[in-house]
């Protein structure tokens, strides 16, 4: 009988300990989430995910006959560019030519094309490469 009482007591202690640890983990995760939300880290991370999901990033195989819609410098062979669903093309990586890359612009709260002010939609993988002539503004 004493062995049964000891076993029941051991089980009760294990259940209470497991419940306490679970509660501490849940409270800690809640505090972390509230702090991340309050500092804006959660929103910035979500916006970067939205930008990455847009797709349309290409490494150019040839020079294009028009310029980056943002910095107005040429789009040259071997540069990475992002083509938005509105067909405006921008430098994708920061370089000596272009420090104001499109991804930084799109991470802002209002995710819109800086040229035509349209909301960019995800670009499908089979979308054609950047056109030879620029898209009309507006």
UniProtKB/TrEMBL annotation:
It comes from the Eukaryota. Residues 68-117 form the RING-type domain. GO terms for biological process: protein ubiquitination. Keywords: Membrane, Metal-binding, Transmembrane, Transmembrane helix, Zinc, Zinc-finger. GO terms for molecular function: ubiquitin protein ligase activity; zinc ion binding. PROSITE patterns: ZF_RING_2 (PS50089). Gene3D superfamilies: Zinc/RING finger domain, C3HC4 (zinc finger) (3.30.40.10). Coiled coil: none annotated. The chain crosses the membrane at residues 12-34. This is RING-type domain-containing protein. It comes from Panicum miliaceum (Proso millet).
């Amino acid at each position: 009988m004493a062995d049964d009482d000891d076993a029941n007591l051991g089980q009760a202690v294990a259940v209470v300990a497991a419940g306490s640890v679970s509660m501490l983990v849940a409270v800690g995760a809640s505090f972390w989430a509230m702090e991340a939300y309050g500092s804006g880290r959660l929103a910035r991370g979500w916006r970067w995910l939205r930008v990455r999901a847009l797709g349309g990033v290409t490494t150019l195989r040839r020079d294009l006959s028009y310029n980056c819609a943002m910095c107005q410098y040429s789009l040259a062979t071997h540069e990475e560019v992002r083509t938005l669903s509105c067909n405006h093309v921008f430098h994708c990586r920061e370089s000596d030519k272009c420090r104001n890359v499109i991804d930084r612009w799109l991470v802002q709260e209002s995710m819109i094309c800086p040229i035509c002010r349209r909301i960019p939609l995800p670009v499908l993988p089979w979308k054609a490469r950047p056109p030879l002539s620029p898209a009309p503004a507006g």
